[in-house]
Amino acid sequence: MSAGYWSLDQQSKVLGLPRSTSWTILRGTHKKSGLSAAIIKRILSTPELPSVVKEYLIEYVWEKNADLYGHNPRQVRRFTAALISVETLSGEADDQRNAALGSRRDQLGKGSG
Known about the structure:
Blueprint: H1 8-15, H2 19-26, H3 37-44, H4 51-65, H5 73-83, H6 94-108
Helix pairs in contact: 1-2, 3-5, 4-6
């Protein structure tokens, strides 16, 4: 919405997802395990994706990989392995990741080590 896409049709198109999937994600009613690697890869491959959405997804991926959401190590490894082919996560967001992880750890009360 902050990128100017107000209708579900617009949001679905910019995310590159079906309306039903977009509705589930945007309303926060997706599985407790969070967004799957396949959905994240699909969204990141959308040419019209606003940079604010891309940044948010990359931050989410780094947080999930840092085990800030309470997943077991096996789940985190599987999620990471599924995302390895996504080039946008390789080095482009290192500064964003470090800042996001620090603030997210503080919010979740996990500290830095």
